[in-house]
TrEMBL record:
Alphabetical UniProt keywords: Methyltransferase, Transferase
Protein EC: 2.1.1.-
Protein name (database record): Class I SAM-dependent methyltransferase
Organism encoding this protein: Jatrophihabitans lederbergiae
Pfam families assigned: Methyltransf_11 (PF08241)
Entries under Gene3D superfamilies matching the protein: Vaccinia Virus protein VP39
Domain Methyltransferase type stretches: 85-182
InterPro entries: Methyltransf_11, Methyltransf_Superfamily, SAM-dependent_MTases_sf
Length: 330
């Protein structure tokens, strides 16, 4: 089975047998050999809780974050872009917040996951505007040549099997002079450190909460097992990490010009990933608003340290996120 066959999830009478409770056992087994199908199943499974999991919102906090990530690599010239497309839109975090920030006018979203496209459309409606959404493969974008002024994505390239082919498609659907912007992609070194910190925190937290005096902090075994299954399937959908220079070369080979990469988050990632892992390992009701504000404000402080101080002295490839921009030749 390929990812383009039977994209709609099937009913599963035994949800404990797979990471996606709406997928059939056969689909999940096939997904281990088909990363595109794995992306559909995993992200359909995550669609309903994705915003909560990643603290995604459409208020000033996330508007500022999305705008800052965009301008960090692409600058603040040329706004607003008339017609924009987001690849791998998820629930619409990047495009919708950039529209709220005034970066773009007309929005279109695509994702391999029907569930994610549906949530992105509903999020847009909740904000008072409409976007067009399509279930689509980034390696074969279903729009005509020269359709968009801007094509963007956040944390999507590392899910795409053939990144260079996707970038060629991006350039095909861009108008001459149009811009591509991708952010939130893991660097090879940054991902290595983040995953090991996360595994350490998961191991320490799940074992500590088994002690009698901390048993109230232990998540039910069924929930932990489900998280472990999700993490296992996540390993199939996370296909790449990037060296910034290599990513730039891929964009140049695809035909982009004026290509530039930047990197972001060092100590902020060392703090943020363990925090996320701890949050996933304990019952949700144990962590309230005070914890959320502690986590957010400390991440902000470390992010400022990274961008204002460490970025001047630490090699770019050691940071966690890489961002890339370029344009289609006139």
């Amino acid at each position: 089975m390929s990812a383009t066959e039977n994209l709609q999830p099937q009913t599963n009478t035994n949800p404990q047998t797979s990471a996606n409770p709406h997928a059939s056992i056969e689909q999940v087994e096939a997904a281990w050999q088909d990363p595109k199908l794995a992306n559909v199943l995993y992200h359909d499974w995550e669609a309903g809780t994705y915003d909560e999991k990643w603290s995604i919102s459409f208020d000033q906090r996330c508007i500022d974050y999305a705008r800052d990530r965009f301008t960090h690599v692409a600058g603040d010239q040329g706004w607003p872009y008339g017609k924009a497309l987001e690849l791998g839109c998820g629930t619409g975090f990047f495009l919708l917040n950039l529209k709220l920030a005034g970066v773009l006018d007309e929005g279109h979203v695509t994702d391999l996951s029907p569930g994610m496209v549906g949530v992105a459309i509903r999020n847009a409606e909740g904000l008072g505007f409409a976007v067009e959404g399509r279930v689509a493969d980034a390696e074969s974008i279903p729009y005509p040549d020269n359709s968009f002024d801007l094509v963007l994505g956040h944390a999507v390239l590392h899910h795409i099997p053939d990144v260079e082919q996707a970038l060629r498609e991006v350039l095909r659907v861009l108008k001459p002079g149009g811009r591509l912007v991708f952010a939130g992609e893991p660097t090879t070194y940054g991902d290595y450190i983040a995953r090991r910190l996360s595994r350490l925190i998961w191991w320490a937290t799940t074992r500590a909460t088994r002690l009698n005096r901390l048993s109230a902090w232990e998540r039910p075994k069924a929930e932990l097992d489900e998280s472990s299954r999700a993490a296992a399937l996540e390993a199939v959908v996370d296909l790449h990490t990037f060296d910034p220079a290599d990513l730039r070369r891929q964009a140049l080979r695809a035909g982009a010009v004026d290509v530039r990469t930047t990197t972001d988050e060092l100590t902020a990632a060392w703090f943020g990933w363990p925090v996320r892992t701890f949050e996933a390992a304990v019952p949700k009701h144990k962590l309230g608003m005070r914890w959320a504000m502690f986590a957010f404000h400390n991440w902000q402080r470390l992010h400022a340290l990274d961008s204002k101080v460490l970025a001047r002295v630490v090699p770019a490839k050691l940071f966690y996120n890489v961002e890339i921009t370029g344009t289609k030749p006139e």
